[in-house]
Amino acid sequence: MRTLDVALGARAYPIHIGAGIFDNAELILPYLKRPRVAIVTNELVGPLYLGRLQAALDAAGVASTAIVLPDGEANKNWETLNLIFSGLLEARCERSVTLIALGGGVVGDMTGFAAACYQRGVPFIQVPTTLLSQVDSSVGGKTAINHPLGKNMIGAFYQPRLVLADVSTLRTLPIRELRAGLAEVIKHALIRDAARMDWLEQHIDGLLACDEDLLAEAVEWNCRIKATVVAADETEQGERAHLNLGHTFGHAIETGMGYGEYLHGEAVAAGVVMAAQLSAQLGMLPEADVERIRRLFQRAGLPVQGPKLGVERYLDLMRHDKKVADGRLRLILLRRIGEAVISEAASQAEIELAIASCCV
Amino acid sequence: MRTLDVALGARAYPIHIGAGIFDNAELILPYLKRPRVAIVTNELVGPLYLGRLQAALDAAGVASTAIVLPDGEANKNWETLNLIFSGLLEARCERSVTLIALGGGVVGDMTGFAAACYQRGVPFIQVPTTLLSQVDSSVGGKTAINHPLGKNMIGAFYQPRLVLADVSTLRTLPIRELRAGLAEVIKHALIRDAARMDWLEQHIDGLLACDEDLLAEAVEWNCRIKATVVAADETEQGERAHLNLGHTFGHAIETGMGYGEYLHGEAVAAGVVMAAQLSAQLGMLPEADVERIRRLFQRAGLPVQGPKLGVERYLDLMRHDKKVADGRLRLILLRRIGEAVISEAASQAEIELAIASCCV
């Protein structure tokens, strides 16, 4: 088992990473105020892992209530959040209860937000069961639900007390979701760590085959990168924006195609290629590096081209996503592999060209 | 104008107290990130003060959106909260917007909670227009909504950037609500400041007649007491519980009679008398002081006896309200006028006797 400490002062917490650790009650016990938890999961993950976790907690003398939510981003709303509050109140959970999020990003976002609000704040523990949530949502403290008028519009910055990232749960993950999680892993290498890009090129096949040691190393290293960035900028004023490499293009793809058509990681992969292409056009990144990035995403089974929405529609959607300063979009670009920059250097014509050259 | 600084480290903020200050844009401007606010108010307060506030902000170059909620505790729920989120999103308010709560405790609680959650947190300013909210909700950072299964179950500790307590708005307050606000003022004197009890006995008629100087002094002093208690115990672990003098009895009255029958302050007044009576029974407080407390509440037009619910019903409701340790209720009692204590000294029989001797 590997352990990483996320340093956030009074809100510091450990991430344990390993195989077969999620039902190790001894890892959880030190973080409970009282032996009373509520486990929030969903209809897909519950049948796979809920019983094991409850049995382990029960054996350790911890009483647990299970709250099973419907699956999917479409349910990341108030009505589903309220199922958590109702479940907690019906089970007479007091302020000393600890919530455990058992599932992917949606379960984690909603459980974290419920923990932030229930009786004005109770502790919570994350047990992420997807690669994306292990490398992405475990660090950062962002919790939220969607509003009909906007994604993630209602939420809180709220840190977990503990994260248990069990890579053995990735064996039950659909391969398409594993690939989408790898998109974020590759993105993290691109913004901060050129040597890790070499490592990923060397081990991409093993990662796709769910080699647990490789996955654990990738998850640990990703959480470390993200923790460094977040600790330096907890409420997202500056360099945390680097994590959004490819996201402005990617959000345009997601929104333009309708949510659900592209997985987030798939849209990010295509978006990162567009950002890399644009960086090359501006003379910041060698063309060969764009090719190298494209090649790694392809090997990971991820899209390297966006859908043909038309460049005007792309720009429209991108302008909605981000604030425009003097008509110029603020984008995350690459100065080299391993170094991201915030830039308003690209003109509209250059952005259009990059999009056009990266569309099917 | 009087100014009190609530010392909460990085979350410190000033409370300005005076007559005719709520539409002084110069007091507000220094606290805005951008000249863009959303004013949340209700159907009763809006027609009285919204126009003046918007006109003043407009003259100062601040764009404002108004969100008018239905009135009353029954609407302190998710549906009404969502009216705030929808209003903010429809007006395309960004993370740089500042919310202004213009109204009583319900508007303040909901606006504060909306501010805590909108885009994971935006600043807010309180303009409390009832005596209760000026002396009570302006300090403490408690925000919340009700859940069908419990009051104030969903919320956050979230501090305003600024409070403008304008005592001239109390002229439009129904006299019954003014009296209910005075119940909290008297309670604060009883738990912390014996000299203030003398002052209140001297000036109770002037306060009821809405003398602005007297009201401003009472509000300032009350906020100061509460700020001291809260700063010492922001998340309610210890002495902040003193503020709950009379509340365990009072909540039993409110719940037993059905919400809305007794105003919160009215139930607290009767509850404080019960707590004082019990303190006297236990030999902690002279009987003459109980009489003195009773007399002041009577002069303020507040109830000094509870409804005849039956002592068993009272105890039932009180046990639901608070945790029971070894069968003994944890209550706030008075050691003398000006000094509250947390005590589990009272037996059930003694509590029953105190209730019986204070019921109509």
Automatic annotation (TrEMBL), chains A, B:
Keywords: Amino-acid biosynthesis, Aromatic amino acid biosynthesis, Cobalt, Cytoplasm, Lyase, Metal-binding, NAD, Nucleotide-binding, Zinc
Binding site residues for Zn(2+): 184, 247, 264
A GO term for molecular function: 3-dehydroquinate synthase activity
Gene (UniProt): aroB
InterPro entries: Dehydroquinate_synthase, DHQ_synth_AroB, DHQ_synth_fam, DHQS/DOIS_N, DHQS_C
Keyword Zinc: yes
Keyword set includes Transferase: no
Record HAMAP family: DHQ_synthase
Top EC class for this record: lyase
3-dehydroquinate synthase C-terminal domain ranges (all copies): 181-324
Domain called 3-dehydroquinate synthase N-terminal: residue spans: 67-179
Name of a matching Pfam family: DHQS_C
Subcellular locations according to the entry: Cytoplasm
Cofactor binding comment, as recorded: Binds 1 divalent metal cation per subunit. Can use either Co(2+) or Zn(2+).
Pathway: Metabolic intermediate biosynthesis; chorismate biosynthesis; chorismate from D-erythrose 4-phosphate and phosphoenolpyruvate: step 2/7
Main location: cytoplasm
Organism: Uliginosibacterium sediminicola
Cofactors required: NAD(+); Co(2+); Zn(2+)
Organism phylogeny: Bacteria, Pseudomonadati, Pseudomonadota, Betaproteobacteria, Rhodocyclales
Positions of NAD(+) binding: 71-76, 105-109, 129-130, 142, 151, 169-172
Protein name: 3-dehydroquinate synthase
Listed EC numbers: 4.2.3.4
Record-stated family: Belongs to the sugar phosphate cyclases superfamily. Dehydroquinate synthase family.
Catalytic activity: 7-phospho-2-dehydro-3-deoxy-D-arabino-heptonate = 3-dehydroquinate + phosphate
Function in brief: Catalyzes the conversion of 3-deoxy-D-arabino-heptulosonate 7-phosphate (DAHP) to dehydroquinate (DHQ).
